[in-house]
Specification:
The chain is of the alpha+beta class. The protein has helices at 6-11, 15-31, 99-112, and strands at residues 36-40, 43-47, 51-57, 62-66, 87-91. Helix content is 32%, strand content 23%. Strand 3 (51-57) and strand 4 form a beta hairpin. Residues 19-110 form the YdhG-like domain.
Length: 115
C-alpha cells in the first residue's frame, strides 16, 4: 500500500467522521504545531520526540488517542480506557471538542514525552 497522508485517511471516512477528523486534525496542529504528522498503524499519528497522540475513526465517533494517556494527569477527566498506557477521548460531535481541557491534555502529552 502506498504511503497514505492524513488528508487521504480523512477523505476515506464517512461524512460525520470526516468532519470530526478534520476539526481534530486542525485542533492538534494549532495546539501543538511542533508535532509531526504521519500515518502509523493505519491511523493519523502525531509525534515529537516520541508518539504523542493519534486519531481513529470509529463507527459512531472518533477517538483522539494518547499513547501515554494512562500516565497523564488528565485534570479534565476526559480520558477513557483501561490499557496500561493508552487512553482515548471519544468525540461524537463538534460540540465535544472542549477547547481548553482538550488543549491542556494535548500539551500535557507533549510535555510528558520530554520527561
Amino acid at each position: 500500500m502506498a504511503d497514505l497522508t492524513v488528508e487521504q485517511y480523512i477523505s476515506q471516512q464517512t461524512e460525520p467522521q470526516q468532519m470530526l477528523l478534520n476539526a481534530l486534525h486542525q485542533f492538534i496542529k494549532k495546539t501543538a504545531p511542533e508535532l509531526q504528522e504521519s500515518i502509523k498503524w493505519g491511523f493519523p499519528s502525531y509525534a515529537g520526540k516520541s508518539n504523542v497522540c493519534y486519531l481513529a475513526a470509529q463507527k459512531n465517533h472518533v477517538n483522539l488517542g494518547f499513547y501515554e494517556g494512562g500516565l497523564l494527569p488528565d485534570a479534565g477527566k476526559l480520558l477513557e480506557g483501561t490499557g496500561a498506557k493508552m487512553r482515548h477521548v471519544k468525540v461524537r460531535s463538534l460540540n465535544e471538542i472542549a477547547e481548553k481541557p482538550l488543549a491542556e491534555l494535548i500539551r500535557e502529552a507533549v510535555a510528558f514525552q520530554h520527561k
